[in-house]
Design a protein that fits this description.
The protein is of the alpha+beta class and 449 residues long. The protein has helices at residues 145-150, 157-178, 192-195, 248-255, 299-316, 325-344, 352-366, 377-407, 411-424, 431-447, and strands spanning 2-9, 17-23, 30-33, 38-41, 48-49, 60-64, 70-74, 81-83, 86-88, 90-92, 98-101, 104-108, 114-121, 197-206, 211-219, 222-229, 234-241, 265-267, 274-283, 286-293. It has 10 helices and 20 strands. Helix 9 runs antiparallel to helix 10.
Length: 449
């Protein structure tokens, strides 16, 4: 959630940070990034909406890591996200950094003002700045120079890590106890009315040696997931637009799960560990928020939690992220060899090229978080490009044959070519498949005459 500042008073709140627009239509506007971070882009379902045609619909996201570090992640934008004039994927932010997105430049300030009078919205467009208005100066609360000058004693790094980790676990446990992770303040999205489905899910598993966090949000037909794992230093953000017509089975499973009959809070006791699940589900006009901490999940909750995690894995390809790097490399090699085999056998059936492309893509996904890349990575990228190029060439050829048959009123041949396209590209969400289906319906009407 983004909080628009109307009247600022200073507050040393480490969970917030202040940003200011330096260049763009809302120049001079300041806003706070709260504990839940903020997503930025043109789409109205974003936390921070910028009406800039050079921005992607979901351009980037600013978020806090469990250890309190502010980071920015590009969400696969067309024109990239830049920090200090360098394109970035996922990097930490520091006071004074300048974020360039489209024609807008945002500066990270060092202060963390707490508004005395605020207007809070889950989704908003930034209004133009008031003429002549000058925002007060904000001191740099991130400045560590004074602290460093007075710190003479240093503990071993291993001891510091243990102390910090225990403190983080304790703070997270306290947040859950006090309800500070309450997700009842749901993200309001225009697209929610189309499906009646919204999901906000967060899982935190913390011990003295590691913290794992998995967060998933779905609304406005957009699915976004974030995974942070300190143990293997993985920080991954993925998002995807989900076709509304594919949500029917998911909604039906959630409807019959018994989730809405659960209590709001299930608390248990555990020493030196935190296992917490926080889930808010909206179906139509009903909204239910349930939190489970350090105890066995109720059966209905476990069922819905599994459904939600399966949804994220299937749509965003998240299943592999929990595996060790060695296993990911092994799976990638197997997928690459499978893709090569299917590509070599592409004349066996019309759908082989698409299967080869999917296998190469699977290998690429396995290697997404692996650095440095293995020696066969170039074969993965090259094979993927070859399969994609040849599939497009064959599609263009069949589409041309179908169009020619239509012009000649040869409806039988037109139907044949379009059915071949559907076999070549079976993915119903693919635009080429959609176009072929529409054309085939029209051709079949002619065949019935």
């Amino acid at each position: 959630m983004v909080t628009i500042l109307r009247d600022n008073t200073l507050s040393e709140n480490p969970n917030n940070t202040l940003l200011e627009i330096e260049v763009g239509p809302a120049r001079g506007q300041r806003y706070v990034i709260g504990p839940n971070g903020a997503r930025i882009g043109r789409d109205s379902s974003n936390d921070f909406v910028i009406h800039d045609p050079s921005l992607s619909r979901f351009h980037c996201r600013i978020y806090w890591t469990p250890e309190g570090q502010l980071r920015i992640a590009d969400l696969g934008s067309t024109n990239t996200t830049e920090v200090n004039r360098q394109p970035v994927q996922d990097v930490a932010l520091m006071p004074g950094d300048r974020i360039a997105i489209g024609d807008t430049v945002v500066r990270v300030l060092g202060g963390s003002p707490q508004p005395a009078a605020v207007i809070t919205t889950d989704t908003f467009a930034i209004p133009p700045p008031v003429a002549g208005h000058s925002a007060p100066e904000v001191p740099n609360l991130f400045d560590q120079s004074a602290h460093e000058a007075t710190s003479g004693n240093h503990l071993p790094k291993s001891l510091w890590f243990g102390v910090v980790t225990v403190v983080v676990v304790a703070v997270i446990a306290l947040f859950f106890k006090l309800g500070l992770f309450d997700t009842n303040k749901r993200i309001a999205t225009a697209g929610a009315a189309l499906t009646g489905l919204e999901i906000q899910y967060e899982k935190v598993q913390a011990t003295a040696s590691n913290i794992f966090r998995y967060a998933l949000n779905f609304g406005g037909n957009t699915l976004i997931a974030r995974i942070d794992n300190l143990d293997n230093a993985r920080h991954v953000t993925r998002d995807k637009k989900v076709e509304p017509q594919t949500l029917g089975p998911l909604i039906q499973r959630l409807e019959t799960s018994g989730f809405f009959t659960l209590q709001d809070d299930y608390q248990g006791m555990a020493q030196d560990v935190l296992d917490a699940w926080d889930l808010t589900l909206t179906l139509g006009t009903r909204t239910k928020h349930v939190r489970v901490v350090n105890r066995v999940e109720p059966e209905a909750f476990a069922a819905v939690r599994a459904i939600v995690e399966e949804f994220g894995k299937n749509e965003l390809g998240l299943a592999a992220l929990s595996l060790p790097p060695e296993r990911l490399i092994e799976l990638a090699r197997e997928a690459m060899l499978q893709g090569r085999k299917i590509f070599d056998e592409r004349e066996v059936s019309f759908g082989r090229l698409y299967k080869a492309l999917k296998a190469y893509h699977e290998a690429d996904v396995y290697l997404e978080t692996i650095d440095p890349k293995p020696d066969f990575y170039a074969q993965v990228i090259g094979g993927q490009a070859d399969a994609k190029r040849e599939l497009q060439q064959r599609y263009d050829d069949r589409d041309f044959r179908a169009e020619r048959a239509v012009k000649l009123n040869d409806w039988t041949d037109a139907a044949k070519q379009l059915r071949i396209i559907l076999e070549m590209i079976p993915e119903r969400e693919d635009e080429r498949n959609k176009q072929a289906q529409v054309k085939l319906m029209d051709v079949e009407r002619h065949l019935k005459r």
